[in-house]
């Protein structure tokens, strides 16, 4: 907050490995900024690993009430956005940057003539923020201290944390989470309803033996915690979890669209007739139930509207790794299924616009 109030700082970076809570931190900062009335407008966009820069530019413009015309050139759009950014004091939050982005080329530049507007950037990689994005001040997000981690875990599992039969194992389980919020959240939510101490002991065994991955920017304990929670799921929930990773990163998924996809792909072995989707039926109910169970395990997150959800980018990375490592076949149950999914994906954006 002090850096945001400093007129000599235009670009601020927040760095830390995947799953530490960078996005949540800048979200809390945005809330505080609104309360303190430091900026006229706040705009947040997510970049991710394979950014669509034109879409990012369009999203920023839309948040600022600016619309582009199809006939306008890239340079014209950049100039329009550049002029719009000069009109008021704006905080632009650009989340999850993996590589250098030429903001100037998009029309994003905050200099002396921009009324104190600022950039708040997050990345897993400090050098991207410092060298590629020219952040003037960078804040590193670290892991939780041991006492903080135990308190966080205890808050989730509730009364079990006070049970002597669980306490020694819980200490070891928390240690395996290595102070990583996303690891603590997934493991604690998986264990909070497990009343048998032996289940907790087996959980500890699994967490210790899970193979680390080479996923860029991810701590090995994040992988082991998510893989552990995945192992606790039913086969149907596991399949749905992996299937959800096939959607674009950071996409908000509409459940009513998801279950139609699944029926079209004959995803559930005991459901073959499309007619069953014409009324509230077990297919739709099953998908809603499975999504809720995945939310309970913190493997899926709430969406921005009722009936929607999204997948954390770190959890999606693990899901994709599981698919690749275990050679999981997500939806292919007949020779036509791959073509079906390909056609569905081609129409996905059209369906999305219509359903929203």
Number of strands: 8
- The coarse overall form would be globular
What is the distance, rounded to the nearest whole angstrom, between the alpha carbons of the first and last residues?
A: 35 Å
Radius of gyration: 22 Å
Q: Helices and strands, in N-to-C order? A: HEHEHHEHEHEHHHHHHEHHEEHHH
How large a portion of the residues is in β-strands, by DSSP E? 5-15%
CATH architecture of the largest domain: 3-Layer(aba) Sandwich
Average pLDDT level: 83
Give a quick account of the main beta sheet: strands, pairing sense, barrel closure: 5 strands, parallel
Q: What is the class of the largest domain in the CATH system?
A: Alpha Beta
Q: List low-pLDDT spans.
A: 270-280, 329-338, 349-356
Strand order of the largest sheet: 2-3-4-1-5
How much helicity do the residues have? 40-55%
Classification by helices and strands: alpha/beta
CATH superfamily of the largest domain, by name, is: P-loop containing nucleotide triphosphate hydrolases
